[in-house]
Amino acid sequence: MEKNTPLWEIFIRSRQGLDHKHVGSLHAADAQMAIENARDVYTRRQEGVSIWVVESKYITASDPDDSDPLFEPAKDKVYRHPTFYDLPEGIKHI
Amino acid sequence: MNLYNYILRMADNSLILGHRLSEWCGHGPVLEQDIAMTNMALDLIGQARSLFALAAEVQNEGRTEDDLAYLRDVMDFQNLLLVEQPNGDFAHTVVRQFFFSAFQLPFYQNLDTILTNPKSKIQNPKLDILRGIAEKAIKELTYHVRWSSEWVIRLGDGTDESHKRMQLAINSLYEYTVEAFMSDDVDKQAITEGYGVVLENIKPVFEETLKTVLTEATLTWPQNVYMQKGGKSGYHTEHLGYLLAEMQYLQRVYPHSVW
Question: Is the pTM of this model over 0.95?
Answer without folding.
Answer: no
